[in-house]
Amino acid sequence: MGDTYKTIDEPAEGLFKDKGSKFFAYAYPFTDEEALKIRIAELKDLHPKARHHCWAYRLTPDRSVFRANDDGEPSGSAGKPILNTLLSNDLTNILVVVVRYFGGTLLGVPGLIHAYKTATQEAINEARIVEKQVKEIYEIRFDYLQMNEVMRVMKEEPVTILNQTFDNQCLIKLAIRVSLAEQVVGRLTKIDGITIDLTGQE
Fold first, then answer.
1. Cα-flanking dihedrals φ and ψ of residue 191, to 5°?
2. What is the CATH number of domain 4-132?
3. CATH for 135-201?
4. What pLDDT does 9 receive?
5. Which residue, 6, 23, 94, 107, could crosslink 16 as a Cys pair with Cβ 3.0–4.6 Å?
């Protein structure tokens, strides 16, 4: 895995029609699985007469978390084509929901796969794709007397300070690009009395 990933930075929509059926695709930036229910509920309010609300998402910079749902369509004909389109575009931290209005003519499984895939791609085509750096989040604790040494490293290295508390005991929470983390942490560990904890990744 490199230390960058591709995602979208704002919602986008796409539409595909086939034999009277309409497939409305909604793509969202997505980092929290808890938000899924909210998005589905919003779309059910927006499209109360739609027959299906099928979806797929990918999460985390290493793309290891993913789920797909056919919502009543034949198994593998909706959620999986949506997910495969996210895979082929190499996108993560994204949710796509495709809302289907049935047009009266059965499309068959191959037709459904094509429809859900195409609607998803239409939404992605409308989205602004951005490349983000994978960063590790660290908390560093140090005595106030070490402040100058610590801040020199902060100034000289490309880190992002997320928050900081300065008292007798100081705390800085910072994000460091994965490929630079070893170098920055190496410099910090040379400062006497500092403790460094890796708390997560973004």
1. -85, 130
2. 3.30.230.30
3. 3.30.70.240
4. 95
5. 23
Contacts of 135 (CB under 8 A, 6+ apart): 160, 175, 176, 177, 178, 201, 202
Strands 4-8 and 129-133, by their bridges, are antiparallel
- Which residue in the block uniquely carries the two structure tokens 């910072």? 174
Q: What is the mean pLDDT of each run of 10 residues along the chain (202 residues)?
A: 87 97 97 93 96 96 92 97 98 97 95 98 98 93 94 95 93 94 95 93 77
The CA-atom distances, in angstroms, between 113 and each of 51, 57, 144, 153 are 16, 17, 61, 53
Q: What is the domain partition of the chain in residue ranges?
A: 4-132, 135-201
One-letter amino acid of 123: A
Give the per-residue pLDDT at 155.
95
